[in-house]
Design brief:
This protein has a 6-stranded antiparallel beta sheet with strand order 3-4-5-8-7-6. It has a two-stranded antiparallel sheet with strand order 1-2. The chain folds into 2 domains: 11-74, Winged helix-like DNA-binding domain superfamily/Winged helix DNA-binding domain (Arc Repressor Mutant, subunit A, Orthogonal Bundle), CATH 1.10.10.10; 89-231, Chorismate lyase-like (Chorismate lyase), CATH 3.40.1410. It has 8 helices and 8 strands, in the order H-H-H-H-E-E-H-E-H-E-E-H-E-H-E-E. The chain has 250 residues and is an alpha+beta fold.
């Protein structure tokens, strides 16, 4: 593995690409631990902070698992369902003919959560813009959103967040979002979410995380939404490629 210091590609992106190649090797796919940070940073001749940024990206993508005091290894393969042509929340609701109401809207500068920190490759001391919204239809709040934004985006909190978020990013900041990696799981509502969604503690909810990147694959937004289970379903259409065969089978 070798870093090209004459390249215009940032060091952490080069290290990330080298790590992606490394973890495809059979020995690591079978569970062998990766070399520790000191060894890897010395091999690549980069700082540990730069290396950690590369590793964080792969951890966020679910390709690596890192445990304190143990080390880093390749994550076991999981089954994922893939949906294309993803839509923003506003677009989803518009297609359903639902007029969205904002019941609460809070903007602040905060330290990043762990997921945001890893996704953006930043440290705890960096303050980032946090947007929290309770949304739903008339007299029926059904989702609480928490968004955090890459600090390189010049959002200052004075924006009119009643407008669709991605419209603000595109029209005001020339940022075109393209990719959303999503994770969805079921859970029971805690006291905070139960109060917001007007349900009981322990009632079923769906937690939907989005890691949103732009057309250049730069991380833009980390978003998590807590949905009432009676208001959200996820529809996926899968296409099976038929096997090539000289005979038809029925």
């Amino acid at each position: 593995m070798k870093i090209d210091r004459s390249s215009s590609v940032p060091l952490h992106k080069q290290a990330e690409m080298l790590l992606r190649d490394l973890i495809t090797k059979e020995e690591y796919k079978e569970g062998k631990m990766l070399p520790n940070e000191v060894e890897l940073s010395e091999q690549l001749k980069i700082s540990r902070n730069t290396l950690r940024q590369s590793i964080n990206t792969l951890v966020t993508e679910g390709l690596l698992i890192r445990k304190k005091g143990v080390g880093t290894r390749v994550a076991e393969k999981n089954l994922y369902s893939e949906a294309t042509n993803w839509l923003s929340f506003s677009q989803e609701m518009k297609l359903l003919g639902i007029k969205i109401e904002n019941f609460e809207l809070h903007v602040s500068k905060q330290a990043p959560t762990e997921n945001a920190k890893q996704f953006f490759g930043i440290t705890d001391d960096v303050k980032i813009l946090r947007l929290e919204r309770l949304r739903g239809k008339e007299n029926f709040p059904f989702v609480y959103f928490h968004s955090e934004f890459n600090p390189n985006i010049k959002l200052d909190g004075t924006e009119n967040f009643i407008r669709p978020l991605y419209e603000i990013l595109e029209n005001d900041y020339n940022i075109i979002v393209k990719t959303s990696r999503e994770e969805i799981r079921a859970a029971g509502a805690d006291q905070f979410i139960a109060t917001k969604l007007e349900i009981e503690v322990g009632d079923p909810i769906l937690i939907r995380k989005r890691f949103v990147s732009d057309v250049n694959n730069l991380p833009i937004e980390y978003n998590i939404g807590w949905y009432r289970a009676d208001s959200f379903s996820y529809k996926i259409e899968s296409i099976r490629e038929p096997k090539t065969s000289s005979q038809n089978s029925f």
